[in-house]
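Exercise 7. Predict the joint structure of the components listed below.
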Amino acid sequence: DVKVTQSSRYLVKRTGEKVFLECVQDMDHENMFWYRQDPGLGLRLIYFSYDVKMKEKGDIPEGYSVSREKKERFSLILESASTNQTSMYLCASSHRQGAYEQYFGPGTRLTVT
Amino acid sequence: EDKVVQSPLSLVVHEGDTVTLNCSYEVTNFRSLLWYKQEKKAPTFLFMLTSSGIEKKSGRLSSILDKKELFSILNITATQTGDSAIYLCALKGNTGKLIFGQGTTLQVKP
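Solution:
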């Protein structure tokens, strides 16, 4: 069974803290993605990765960085959390070639106070 | 710029009603259009459409793509309370990234 897991379902952090969100997939997918989801705005792509150690900026990369040291793991880092980064964060993965759908993790609801 | 627009943004119906959700798009190089259903947590995949005019069907849900008029619809017949969810439309272009619409929030009342 296809599985994407995220390290936390709920997270509360203070302004200025460094935050790590972890995502792991067990499907040997080449592609991995980080989105944030806000009401009325849908899912917006933050960063994605086509391979180990490779990363590409999405539509809203400001204030975020990522790390992909292993194929199955993709981490999202908030260097200095701010209140406008309070959101639902969704990780996804897919095969690289073909019209494959993306599989999503359960999401992490991050609140920055 | 590639864009996906869903309508309506929200919808309230009663059990047994039929609903039609719309997704229109602009894209430089079309690869596929995907529909997802999102309840409390992870979006789950419903359909992928690549060819115009071919209906995809799964139980009470069906979807069709019109590549000439650049839109897709998702139909749900005989709605049930379990159909209450956010329905997301996403476009895949040449880059392999998905571009999502805002989503349609559907509430089905008993």
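Discussion. Chain B has a mean pLDDT of 92.
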